[in-house]
Structures are given as C-alpha cells and as structure tokens.
Amino acid sequence: MALESITNPYCKRSHYGCLGHEVQIEYLKAYVCRPSFSTDKAVIVVHDVFGWRFPDIRYIVDLIAGHGYITICPDFFKGTEPWKSTDHWPDFPDWMKNHDPMKVDKEADVVLKYLKEQCGAKKIGIVGFSWGGMAVHHLMLKNPHLTAGVSLYGIVRDSEERYRLLNPTFFIFGEKDHTISLDQIFLLEDKLKQYCKVPYKIKVYPGQVHGFAQLKPEDMKPDDKPYIEEARRDMIDWIKMFV
C-alpha cells in the first residue's frame, strides 16, 4: 500500500458541521444520524483508518440518513488511536496488526443488536471505506443479518472463502487506486462469477484514486466530481435495491 494513497487524499479537509449525534452502545461509541421520518431500515457505516470522528465519514453518514435510513458509524477501533496523516509510514504495518479489519464481528453484533432493539430496525445494510471496505467484505462472508453491503476500495485478500458472499454486495474501486490493482479486481470478478450465489456488482470509476468517494463537495476537484457523485448514487441505489 503506497504512502501517497493513504495520506494525500485526506489532508487539509474543510471543517464539517455534523447533523447527527454521538451515543454510547455498550463498550462502543458511535455517531448516529436519523432521517426526518420514522423508518425500520438502517445502514452501518464502517470508517477507514482515520476513524469514526473523521469529517468525511460523518458527512457520508449524514448523506445516507438523508435518503431515509437510520445511519450509524461505530468506533470499530474501540477507543484506540486511528491512523493520522502525520504518522510515520514504517509504523503502518504494526498499526494494522492492532487494527485488523477481519476482527470486527463482535462489534458488528453489538451494533446490530442496538439497531434492532433500540431503533426498531428490521433491515440493515452496511457500507465501508478502505479499511472499512475490507471489514464489509469480511462481514458479508460471515454475517447473514446484514441484508446488503457496499465495499468501497477494500477487499479481503487472503481467505479461500472470500468469494462466497451471503447477501448482495457491491464493490466500488478507483481506476488509479495504488492499493488495489486492476488485476486484483479482475480476479475478484472472475472468482465471484464462479462461486458467488447471490447478487453482486463490481464497478471501476475512471481516473479515481483511493478514497475518492467520501470527499465532501467543497473538497472535490472539478474533474473528479462527476465520478464521485456517480459512485455515491450507485452506492445509494444498491442500498435502496436491497435494504
């Protein structure tokens, strides 16, 4: 994973005034935003390495809530420090060992219980970005209670079972992502055709780099804006189709 692809897309973000609020769910803190009307549909958002308080992730939570879903982003790092753009790249592998995106099952169960028992949710989808995209891919292989998933530029790479999705899953990639090659994407597509028994979709957005889809409007470059907005529409459409 190139340092450039971790730091550059996330530096110097503008401030964002959130629409939701923070809650405590057992041992987890979380950011929640609700739509203006009552609903029994919910979406879990899994943050990237920059954590649950990162402004771009909260913007996405609010965006999804605006489409009619109780939307929640828990702190999947359980109070530990997220990665920061000022951290030293040689330390990243060690940081990842303590923040494994394949070890999120317990936290997912805690949040699912909260959404069902405290929010009245009956259908629950999940969306994740980068680190969170890997977590979503993992959870869509393990947790049948997640009605649908969207993994944005994050995939499980080292499991023989990674193609046997339990429920509909959409994979979003940038063409110029330094962390996921086009060959890896083609392999994923080929294997899903062979082994996957549920609806899935893979889409690559031209010219886009790692992290492109979670930028706030004021941080978008004009040439990238159409692809960012398209990816967001596609993400919402997938959720609406199944959740």
From TrEMBL:
Pfam families the UniProt entry points to: DLH (PF01738)
SUPFAM superfamilies tied to this protein: alpha/beta-Hydrolases
Gene: LOC117005376
UniProt name for this protein: Carboxymethylenebutenolidase homolog
Domain of life of the source: Eukaryota
Organism lineage string: Eukaryota, Metazoa, Chordata, Craniata, Vertebrata
UniProt record similarity statement: Belongs to the dienelactone hydrolase family.
Cell compartment(s), UniProt: Cytoplasm, Cytosol
Gene3D superfamilies from the UniProt entry: alpha/beta hydrolase (3.40.50.1820)
UniProt source species: Catharus ustulatus (Russet-backed thrush)
Main location: cytoplasm
